[in-house]
Write a structure and sequence with these properties.
about 130 residues
């Protein structure tokens, strides 16, 4: 049996957070949810079990999703990062981390699952 991949989801809108969590859980991922960039970065620094990052871009206060993505990559250079935004997609090429995916709201939940699977499949195995 394949080991379960743990994905961190960072979203401050409760209904969207539930939708993302449900879609990823139903696809077989273990999901940890937080509602701010601050909580996400703290968790990333404390929990080395996170193997994927899904983050909204804009939160009520800093840090933003761009910073969450950079923090995740600082800890694990190959971690899959998916950005979600209704407004900031145009900034992705400038502010997003390399080999990440941007999903513009609204999108089908299947797109989120497919994006995570694609990034995980593209990832090179970690060096031991």
């Amino acid at each position: 049996m394949e080991p379960v991949v743990t994905v961190l989801v960072v979203e401050d809108e409760a209904m969207l957070l539930l939708d993302y969590e449900r879609a990823l859980t139903e696809a077989g991922f273990a999901v940890i949810v937080v509602t701010s960039g601050t909580k996400a970065i703290r968790l990333l620094n404390e929990d080395n079990q996170v193997q994927g990052d899904v983050t909204d871009i804009r939160f009520a206060k800093p840090p933003d999703g761009w910073e969450v993505g950079r923090a995740a990559r600082h800890i694990d250079a190959g971690i899959p990062v998916i950005y979600i935004s209704g407004h900031a997609a145009a900034d992705w090429t400038e502010k997003g981390v390399p080999n990440s995916i941007m999903l513009e709201k609204p999108f089908a939940m299947a797109q989120l699952v497919t994006a995570m699977a694609q990034l995980l499949n593209d990832r090179l195995p970690r060096e031991t």
